[in-house]
Each structure stands twice: as C-alpha cells, then as structure tokens.
Amino acid sequence: MVSDPATDAVVRWGSASNTFLVLDPAAFSDYLLPSYFKHRNFASFVRQLNTYGFRKVDTDRWEFAHESFLRGQAHLLPLIVRKKKKAGGGRELCEEGEEVRGTIGDVRRLREEQRGMEEELQAMERRLRAAESRPGQMMAFLAKLADDPGVVLRAMLTKKEELAAAGKGSPPPLEAPAGKRRRIGGAEAAELAQGGGAVPFPFSVLGQVFY
C-alpha cells in the first residue's frame, strides 16, 4: 500500500524512507482501509499502529515510523509484532477496547445506511406498482364506456342534479330503479351540448363510473 505509486497522493514513504505519511486521511479511510482491514475508521487505524510499536514523528502531519518498517527491507517486517498486554490490563487493553468500540460504531453506521437503502427501494416498488395499475384502470373504464356510451353523460346529469339540490336545500332526486338506465331528454341533452348549464366534471365522478 505504501510502496504503490498509484496511491502516492494518499499515502507514501517519507523523504528518508524510514517513515510513511498519510497525506489524505479521508481518502485513506474511504478507499484504502477497507481493502486491508474490516473497517474504515482512521482513528482505529492509528491505535493499531500504536499497538504494533509505530510512533507519530510529526505533530503537524500524519507521519509514522517503526524501526523495522523501512523502504526496500521487507525482510524486517516479521519483527513488527503486537505489544504484549500488561498484567491486569494497562494502556494496550484500553486501546483495544477503543478499537472495538470504533468497529462497532462502523457496523452500526453501515446497518443504518443499509436500512435507508431498503426503505428507498420499497418506496420505489410501491410507486412502480401504482404506475403499473393505472393502464389497467383506464382499460376497464374504456371497456365499460364501449359497452354503455351514455354512462358518462348520465353521471354528469346525476352530479348536476345533486349540486342543484344541495344549493336549493331540497332533497336529492330519486334514483332510478335498479337495473334500469335513466334516459336523457332532448332538452337536457341540448342544454349540455350548448354549455348553458356547465356541469363540473371532476375526476372523482369519472372514477365512480369505472371503479
């Protein structure tokens, strides 16, 4: 990772080849850490370095060193081992606890992101099902209209009578007996054709026709 020229903008060797620098901690955490570790927590990575004997050599930047971590001397890497725990706990044990807590926090964050993605997918599925049902409803209406062309006009007249009755305070007109269709008189048809008595025709009426 440190020796890869493709990642020099993020992490590279120091000028003396006995240290390494993390130039972009954010990119390092997002793109490089997940490839080598099971987390993307930069603070946890720094704690791991301390656990294996690395030390921070510059207070103004993320530069670390280890006596056995030298450029071109890979044979020294087996000498980099985890520090032994002190009896009864100690600082290393506390650092391990912090590392575990950091990993748990990463897992929780990933679960929340996954839950959000699942909810978004469910919402998309609901919208897709609603869009797929609209052509079927329209086809059902057209089939009913082809079977009975006067159904829309009768619905308009019924709505007009209901609105007129509500405005005058009189009871609504009696409904036609079941199984019989109401015939439209010439005067009513002419009135509708001339637009003299414009009848509101909201979609709710259309919906009642073919529901």
Please describe the topology of this protein:
Elements: E1 11-13, E2 19-22, H1 25-36, H2 42-51, E3 55-58, E4 62-65, H3 91-147, H4 151-168, H5 186-194, H6 203-210
Antiparallel strand pairs: 1-2, 2-4, 3-4
Could you please describe the fold and organization of this structure?
By secondary structure, this protein is an alpha+beta fold. Among the domains are: 5-83, Winged helix-like DNA-binding domain superfamily/Winged helix DNA-binding domain (Arc Repressor Mutant, subunit A); 148-175 and 182-210, no CATH class. The chain is 54% helix and 7% strand. The protein has six helices and four strands, in the order ββααββαααα. Strand 3 and strand 4 (62-65) form a beta hairpin. Helix 2 (42-51) runs antiparallel to helix 3. The protein is rod-shaped and about 95 Å long.
